[in-house]
Task: structure prediction
Amino acid sequence: MDKIGSAPALAGWYVISLRPSGSHAPVRRAASALGAGVVSVSTLALRPLPARPALVAALACPVVVVTSPAAVRFASQQLALAAAPGQRWLALGAGTAAALERAGVAGAAFPDSGTDSEALLALPALKPPPSAVGLLTAPGGRGLIPETLAQRGAAVHRANVYQRVAVHPRAARLRRLRKLPAQTALLVSSSEAFDGLWKPLDEAGREALRARPAVVSSPRLAAQLAALGFRALVLAPGAAPETMLGALAADVGQGRFR
Result:
């Protein structure tokens, strides 16, 4: 017999969201659906970068790689996005592919598992490499993608359509993290965003985070946090909020965290 009125999978839990300023709503929706609350701590803000000439060149390539939903948003503010006949579009994850579809590019390929650069570079469309690849992204980060494509012999036409700007959380916000209950998990999908939280914390603040679960979106991030002493890591198969919250809910349901 099914349980009637059973509690949501993450009832009583909180998650710490490190999404950029103004980008926490998807985390709140995913958390609310599972009964969890959200504490938002932004360490980055996203700002547009004028890139029309570079964008024109990138969109003319036979293969276009898009690294994030933000890249879709900021690129589409400068030029309409549409796939040319025979052109292939690749997305770093399902969330980026969905953003592309909303912007007018349907059918973008993305890795079946993983949302890191290695997973994208393993896609068949990039092996062997095309003659030219357009890359819609931001400065910094994801350096492995253009470097590897260039090493494979592709001409990479990069369009930096937005930039990440550091945001310094208020001291009171950071102190609040220490007082959160044990049933609090940190969501980490960006090394840059995590570093912006970690660096200003004192040792007591860092230990408060180490003692709680951390949900990470890639093996690379798992290794980074493990090296810093995090003791309860949850590896999610992607960076979408529902994916990360679902991974946490699965471990909670199996009794890993009490």
In short: The chain has a mean pLDDT of 93.
